[in-house]
Amino acid sequence: MPAFSTEERQLLHDSATDFFADRYGPDRALALARADGFGRAEWADYAALGWLGLMMPEALDGADGGLTEAAILFAAAGRGLAQEPLIPTMVLGAGALARIGGPAQAALLKDVAAGARVLTFMHAEPDAGYARDHVRAVAARTDAGWALSGAKRFALGAQDADALLVSARIGGADGPVGLFVVPADAAGVTLNGAPALDGRRGAAARFDA
Asked: What is the pLDDT of residue 30?
């Protein structure tokens, strides 16, 4: 059975449509593109409305929705030309953590639902082309945990993220691929922010141990 009834999906559609129609549009998109591309007040409103936890399990303060509910929200956001990193945080970042993360990541996901954390997923590398299995970044075990070295290509929302989900080979170039939660302000992380063609902002990243 779907977590949302037809009536609940209609309510989500109506509330999201009204929200973005009232507060968004071309002028706001252009203004944000000239600034940092991120509406912090709106992000807090997304959390208060329950949208940031829309696809998360109820145990993590989410609504236990799925792709249908996300599509309703994203369609409204798209019509309003919203610039905030909804897909990088909700689908790519929190989605990955919710599926493969453990208890240690539960608090991080609750922070996402509350609007306190922004995530992004960084996998593509500068020389990867379209090969999705191309990973040359390496994570080496240290006394303090892990040290990542390598580079990742431009990812939407990375310049505003609090944490980056980064793929890397464990132990060496031939190791299995792991996924690591890296604080964006950690020592050795360099973010090179830039706008995408449509004005939304993101960044490429370099990791030096």
From this structure: 75
The two tokens of residue 125 are 């590398």
Lookup: tokens for 13 = 């559609």
Supply 207's token pair. Answer: 């990791």
**pLDDT score for 58:** 87
16-46: per-residue pLDDT in tens? 999 999 888 888 877 776 666 678 888 999 9
Taking alpha carbons only, the member of 187, 145, 148 closest to residue 169 is 148
Q: How confident is the model at residue 104 (pLDDT cuts 50, 70, 90)?
A: confident
pLDDT at 37: 66
Judged by DSSP in three states, 20 sits in helix
pTM of the model: 0.88
How far is it, in rounded angstroms, from Cα 10 to Cα 12? 5
The phi, psi pair for 197, rounded to 5°, reads -60, -30
Q: Which of 149, 168, 170, 160 has its CA nearest to residue 191?
A: 160
80 within 8 A of 18, measured Cβ to Cβ: no
CB-CB neighbours of 87 under 10 Å: 18
Please tell me the number of Cα atoms within 13 Å of 163 on its side-chain side. 21
Please tell me the distance from the alpha carbon of residue 198 to that of residue 195, in angstroms, as a whole number.
Answer: 8
